[in-house]
Amino acid sequence: MNAERSAIVLTGCTVVDGRVLEGVAPLVDAAVWVRGERIEAVGPAPEVLAAAGAAGDFRQVDLAGAYLTPGLVNMHTHLSLSLPGQGGDAVKGLGAYELAHYMADGARRTLLCGVTTVRCVAEKDHADFALRRAITSGWVTGPRIFTAGQALVCTGGHGHEGTDTLECDGADGFRRGVRRQVKAGADLIKVMISGGIAGEHESIHTRQLFPDELAAVIETAHAWGRKVTAHAGPAPVIAEAVERGLDCVEHGYQLTPEVTALMAERGTALVPTLLVTRCEEFFDQLGVPEWMRRRSLDAGPRHLESYAMALAAGVEVLLGSDMPPFWQFEGTNASVRELEHMSESGLGPARALYAGTLGPVRWLGAEADLGTVEPGKCADLIAMDGDPLTATSAFRSVRWVMSGGRIVRDDRTGWNAS
């Protein structure tokens, strides 16, 4: 069976990863020897083939001139997303067993589109932990999952309507909220510190946590060795959080040069989710209400200005779609379309490759296992026809996916792990 792990040597490829920004040039006419779940060797094809042959039997897979990169990492994922409107109401109505199947299907689609790792930042009923276990056990096909569990919100705060958030109040309440997520198995903590696009009775610039509540979240999470990311729009709220040690900002709709300079100085990353304010077609498909459509699209120009400010200040930006990673959108999937927006709006192809692979992996603290194509790393790889250093749109041509040493998609043979 094609999905079984075995010794495999990938040939006919050019290997490239985010280390290109650090002087590691693409390797042309390369071979990659994969043994079990991990990469055994990378180098010129004759050398790697000889080494693999000396070690025993292997299967050679010719990638026919493809560019081979690490799989993409989507840092803003909701596999149980339910926005206001008909589409979201259908998800909210799912029972526990139905939700599990729904999320598993989304995980499979996510992996097959070339996203081999996700960071979930609010999922319903802690189903993400069960899904992570199922994927790790091999019962379900899907990406590696790093998750925040339920996002923490104040009573009535952003996203309070669903079971993907936990309402907390007061410093003690938010401390308990952090500990509950850690107890469930959270890799990080997500907190809503301002209003957002999907909340009818709030605005993007609504402050939602008091200083002692914000401090309680960050201090408690850091004490447990977890980073904190925050849904946040307005600069004053973000500045306060960054001063207190916030590790990452989601969206950042209304940044300023002052706050982006502070983020760069403190090492606070930004997941800009540019798609959120330029996805009218997606909203049409889900039937979101007019108030949400207008709030989103009207925020688009300022959102893009904020992103430009972050780039100018040297803030590290990371790929995150908010839309389901696999969602077909404007001729590709949401993950690739977001990365294209990031690249076209000032990041450029080489830095976009980094922002979609090695950058997120380093934020997650997983660089010992993921993010590059080199010996010892997990074999989470994708192959495409286009050169990602020439144009980020090359990711539209992904036609082959490997996860942990298993080939899960190969368009040339018609194989996929469906």
Automatic annotation (TrEMBL):
Superkingdom to which the source organism belongs: Bacteria
Ranges of residues in domain Amidohydrolase-related: 67-408
Gene Ontology molecular function, alphabetical: hydrolase activity, acting on carbon-nitrogen (but not peptide) bonds
Coiled coil: none
PANTHER family per UniProt: ALPHA-D-RIBOSE 1-METHYLPHOSPHONATE 5-TRIPHOSPHATE DIPHOSPHATASE
Protein's UniProt name: Xaa-Pro dipeptidase
